[in-house]
Automatic annotation (TrEMBL):
Belongs to the CdaR family. Residues 301-426 form the CdaR GGDEF-like domain. It comes from the Bacteria. Residues 481-538 form the PucR C-terminal helix-turn-helix domain. It holds the Pfam family HTH_30. This is PucR family transcriptional regulator.
Amino acid sequence: MSIIVDYRDRMRDRPRASLGRILHDLGTTLLDVAASPGDLDTEVTGVHIYDPLDELIVPPGGILLAVGVQRADDICALVERAGQAAGVVVKLPVDVDERVRAVVLETGVAVLGLTRAASWSQVAALLRSLLAEGDLAEPGEGPPDDLFSLANAVCALLDAPVTIEDRSSRVLAYSGRQDEADQGRVETVLGRQVPDRYLRMLDEHGFFKQLYQSREPVYMELDDENVINRVAVAVRTGDEILGSIWVAVHEPLSEQRQRALADAAKIVALQLLRERAGADTRRRLRADLLSTVLAGGTDSAEAAERLGIATRLCVLAAQLTGDSAADPARGESDGQRFCDALALHVGAIHPKAAAALVGSVAYAVLPLQPGGPDSSGEEARAVRVAESFLARVGPRHAANIGAGRLALNLSHVARSRADADRALRVLRARGATGQVAGYTSVHFESLLLQVADVAAAEEQAPTGPYQRLLDHDAEHGTELSATLRAYLDAFGDVNAACAQVHVHANTFRYRLKRLVEISGLDLSDPDARLTVMLQMRIFGR
């Protein structure tokens, strides 16, 4: 019992997010100090990615990820421009000379080296997890106990590095001292997921079966000189398994430490349940606030202020293209993970971006700096951001994204959201997957869909030559309307059109003559051609 009391005391004494604490938690395997101003007690407030094409905005205490920066001259220039930052991260090896050290001492901004094995998205995700960015805590609310605090407390109790994982072996939190473990643990922490080859090894030895059948810690001898043995315990509430705690050890735990680990699993279970409920509440709140901003109106300014978003922005509307009707629960879970990934992506680009799931659509508001005399440049940049996101999530999340026009102020945000929805609908109508469309590029297709909506609502039907052609096809089983569509799509090129419908050119010419006789359509009249082409698009036959 004394162990539990001590454990909770450790949880309550969580230090603030200083640069030194973050470096200690991540370990020198991932981040190391290349040039220090001396004191690393600066409080870290956020993570930001350097883009040479955008205005550099780094608030006090921000960590700047210097993507593509290598030479000492460039490092010096960037540190000087980011004078309020807590640190600048550069991929190893870092080119540090006397000029860099002098600028670091002058500005107080540390230069950190990132291992080349880690991607920028990985380090951004890890840092944001440590900082717990995005929590919509009320003013005056103290920092909650979190899984990282629990992992560090268990590490202190067991004197060994710890990870807390979910049922899919995704890392939810990890302790410090990970550099004391093996390469497999380093890869696990960097990727936030246990690598497949280690999962197969554990499964082949039957360790997962032992773990989930036992309520006590399980010691696992891995018989590999490059891998440290593990002790793991399932984290459960009743019969539901929420995840597990994994400890890298060289020998079995003592009886006292086994009890401590089993007791810690109960507290982690409570924290996971609290975080599940809290995450649901925060997500609902964030979705409600973002919905208010997207709708415009009198409350949008207050909602935007609570979310901390900028006013000059483009709206992105993203939706998974898979069939979620077969398994609604899985569809909702996949949609939320997709939205979380989108929020991380846009948040790494701009600190005042925001994203939330509204229904089945993940909306993101992306602040953009002016790039020209009109909004077309900003919309194109929003499209590139969306394309980059889909390229990153790849086959894990098959989706489409629509991008709205630039909103110059909050009163225009609702219009940008409508633009994004319409662009997304065009992609759905095309049957596309993995595509991005800006509203201006699909404007006319969107208008046709809107006209089709009006026609359907008013129960309107085709008229004139096109209606006569459809009636003849229905009565005699002919395909004259398909012949007409192929002819118009080929701009009157009979050879191209007959190849499209797979008939001989003479047969096609005969059908073309017949459809003119039956419908009365004058193919030499451009207005008549336009009229029938629009009817084909609007009525979709």
